[in-house]
Amino acid sequence: MTVRRPAPSEPPVDLYGRRRPDRAMRVFHAVAETRFRWTTLINRKDPAGRVDDRRLDLTVVQRRVEAHDTDVVSLLLAAPDGRALPPWRPGAHLDVELPSGRLRQYSLCGDPADRHGYRIAVRRIPGGGGGSREVHDALRIGSRVTVRGPRNAFPFVPPGYGSDSARVHFVAGGIGVTPILPMVRMAHRLGIDWSMVYAGRSRDTLPFLDEIDSFGGRVTVRTDDEHGLPIAADLLPGVGPDTAVYCCGPVPMTALVAEGVRTLPGVELHSERFSAPPVVDGKPFTIELARTGEVIEVPADRSALEEVLAVRPDTAYSCRQGFCRTCAVRVLSGVVDHRDTVLTPEERADGELLICVSRCAGERLVLDL
Ligand code: FES
């Protein structure tokens, strides 16, 4: 007996043995396949995904201007041999080693289902630490960069996949859209109930506006030039109990959203900022740099890193929020007020200090610098 095998291009039989499923079955298959592909990217017990610390040498294969007014470019990074890259989940970032040796972190803003390219976007910050300038000026198509990660400090947990919330509201400000964009894409594909406010000075300043606009009526674009400066209610329209809010943007905007959420019972807030947090309950102290004997005064409202950078501009740093370890130094004497989120008790006992957030619990620290 000859068994006829279907040609590779032939569709599989449906539940009723029909080789050409009707429209309802085709829609069912498409939805099921999409849902399966996306749910395999989610792990209820580990929404951030595996921490991947291996170094990858990648090539810039695409460079696009995403917003002229705010000078945002996106780069697509791929393996030189085209192999698949380690998986990631919405909210993840890469540590990017720039040609100068500077280390900077950038959110992944592409599609997690695409395993052959990591997309990042960078806004040029005039007068910043030089990392964004370097990305804009030195990285072109064909440039090689080394990255570490992806790592996830801002994981998205959708309703039904580990979150008790029934719906999600996203708030993004300007370049803060980068970690939010993959979350929106995932929420949309999973068919969960979501909404979004995308805010900025004007439409010209907003990167990826065409991609965000493609999600239609769930998104409200709110710009200062058309609508005036927002208040918290403008950023949280219709947000009520059982909503999870994911927010990323400049400090004033994330502060406004946090203030608004505090007045809304039953709303949980997940936020990520792109700059150093303000110093809370800071007291002034003195730092002595042991290798040169220089003495630096750190005011109550400034970080040790800011003051060290003023005399040592080459000091390494990245996140400025106490989680990447780039700014770690050794304390030779003094009592530390540790404010980071990553050092273990052993590392602290060993004299490790993250100068971007941690301070002195007394009056003077002597650092091995
Ligand atoms: S710069 Fe990241 S921990 Fe200090």
Features:
alpha/beta, Rossmann fold, 9 helices, disordered N terminus, Elongation Factor Tu (Ef-tu), domain 3, Ubiquitin-like (UB roll), 18 strands, 369 residues
What would you say this structure looks like, in words?
The chain is an alpha/beta fold and about 375 residues long. It folds into 3 domains: about 55-150, Elongation Factor Tu (Ef-tu), domain 3 (Beta Barrel), CATH 2.40.30; about 165-275, Rossmann fold (3-Layer(aba) Sandwich), CATH 3.40.50.80; about 285-365, Ubiquitin-like (UB roll). Helices cover about 20% and strands about 30% of the residues. A 6-stranded antiparallel sheet has the order 4-3-6-1-2-5, covered by helices on one side. It has a 5-stranded parallel sheet with strand order 9-8-7-10-11, sandwiched between helices. Helix 7 (about 250-260) links the parallel strand 10 (about 245-250) and strand 11. The radius of gyration is 24 Å and the shape is globular. The chain starts with about 20 loop residues before the first helix and ends with a strand. FE2/S2 (inorganic) cluster (FES) binds next to loops. FE2/S2 (inorganic) cluster binds next to loops.
List the SSEs and their pairings:
Elements: H1 23-39, E1 55-67, E2 72-78, E3 92-97, E4 103-107, E5 118-123, H2 131-138, E6 144-152, E7 167-173, H3 177-190, E8 194-200, H4 209-213, E9 219-223, H5 224-227, H6 232-235, E10 243-249, H7 251-262, E11 268-273, E12 285-289, E13 294-298, H8 304-311, E14 328-333, E15 336-337, H9 345-349, E16 352-354, E17 359-360, E18 364-367
Parallel strand pairs: 7-8, 7-10, 8-9, 10-11, 12-18
Antiparallel strand pairs: 1-2, 1-6, 2-5, 3-4, 3-6, 12-13, 14-16, 14-18, 15-17
The structure holds FE2/S2 (inorganic) cluster.
The site of FE2/S2 (inorganic) cluster (FES) has 12 residues, from loops.
